Amino acid sequence: MPSLQNTFQVVSQQKLCPKFYRLCIDAPVICQTVKPGQFVHIKVNDQLFPFFRRPFSVYRAQKYVEIFYEVVGPGTAVMARMKKGDPVDVIGPIGRPFSMPDKKIKKIVMVAGGIGVAPFLIFCDALRKKHSDLELILLYGGRSQGHVYDMKEFKRHGCQVHVATNDGSVGKKGYVSGFFPKINIDRKDTFIYTCGPNPMMAAVQTWARKYGVAGEAVCEEVMACALGACLGCSIKTRSGYKTVCYDGPVFDLQEPIF
Amino acid sequence: MKIAVKIADVIFKNPLTVASGTFGHAEKYYDFEEVKKLGAIVPKTVTFHPQQGNPPQRIMETPSGMLNAIGIENPGIDGFIQNKLPAFKKIGVPLIISILGHTDDQFLQIVEKLNQQKGISALELNLSCPNLKHKILVAQDPKATYRVVSKVKKISRFPVMAKLAPNVTDITEIALAAETAGADGISLINTFAAMAIDIETRRSVLGNFTGGLSGPAIRPAAVYFVHQVAKKVKVPIIAMGGIMTAHDALEFIIAGATMVAVGTANFVNPRAPLEVLQGIEEYLRAHKIKDIKELIGSLE
After folding, report:
1. Cβ-based contacts of A90 with chain B (< 8 Å)
2. What global pTM score does this model have?
3. Closest to A195 in 3D by CA, of A143, A140, A145, A149
4. Does residue A157 contact residue A125 with C-beta atoms inside 8 Å?
5. pLDDT, tens digit, for every residue of B34-45?
6. Any CB–CB contact under 8 A between B33 and chain A?
7. Measuring CA to CA, which residue among A255, A257, A253, A254 is closest to residue A216?
8. Which of A112, A193, A236, B95 gives A117 a disulfide partner, CB atoms 3.0 to 4.6 angstroms apart?
9. Does the CB of B50 have a partner CB in chain A at under 8 Å?
10. What is the pLDDT of residues A199-235, one digit of tens each?
11. ipTM of the complex as predicted
């Protein structure tokens, strides 16, 4: 019964690289209201399988709502078959968004693993509108070259993009944490945002803690209702269990226990 | 066309409610004009002490359903009365409060606290949550069911429903025990004890090891339980178990349910309760049924 549930139309479906797709949905009401870091909850078909909706960070919200996703299971497999004109049942936008950095912040470091890059483009769009002189750095780690795309939209924002792959097929070989020693972060002017696999976000927590730098993390858990009702998507945090859908998905960087 | 139903002395304007644990407190997301159309609301089960719930992973989807092992995460009865109840009362729909005591005394203490509250229509005793560390559920033992229901009935200001478990040999034996003890209604059916295994790690998927299966996967079994119980008891039945559509709800009503609760469907289609209600009304019109009571238990 939420006023946030609507049926929209697919505008386009695009494969950006072997593993990643971009789905554009004509949802003006979401474009007008979504804040960076929030997500939408999509029913990929009207069948009983896949049973749950699937939550996706909003990748961009200009003319259309853009969803950036990887095919990892039955839900995203169905989604990859959606085409222009298909109806799609969407709840959103929902969840706690990123907090916008205060005035003393001059440098934004975003650490993303794989599809965890999804919430950061809409965020860069918003940051650039308000703070044209902010230094933007994106540290991106992918499994292999299939998980790397051109990221030109980030570069267009003047964002410095550093890419690592586990196998070294593109960029630096190894984990994204390999970049940490080369990036100067300072509690006075830096803010860190991260989204990706839990071990990566745990490494970001440690790095930020070492320098006393504040930040935020976008968390993920298997989700059913996304409206705070089922309490299914709870994660462990320093103040007990918190739901990703309602208390998050954006948490203070040091809050989750990964 | 009459769709109001009655349980004990409480009149519900229609037979549609929500199963406990599936209707959220997320006021900011709900369209209250729509929520007001429900016949009753059953908030998530409340216990005597606050409970933090089970470790993640708490849920997973299954073919036509889901497993859950939330573990009754709730603020405890005092926190509920202080922080949750006022918002639920404001909706203006009859409230059926689902309660669970880990001992008989806890049940009674919860009831005593609720007895002092206004704006409550009935109590539902959760005798059947599979996700707690009890070796045997109250609802798996007719004597325990009789004992708890009769103790609560003695002190409760409100009508009392007993919510039963499907993991029993003979559901009618338990339902009769509840009725004999004075239950004003029987809620059928809680989730089925279930589990899933990660074959790579050879570990259970759920943080609580086991969970409860719900959703359309259990619906035909739930219809069977309702049919069995309806033949044996005289008190009204509130039926739940995988209702996604009006068709599903009508099956339960024809099998003998006075009220129907939409549960797991809320997580997938939050509009399901109202769509079900609308569909029931359309069915009654199409079949020229003037009063829903004609349909309840009308199985040939």
Report:
1. none
2. 0.94
3. A140
4. yes
5. 889 999 999 999
6. no
7. A253
8. A112
9. no
10. 999 999 999 999 999 999 999 999 999 999 999 999 9
11. 0.93
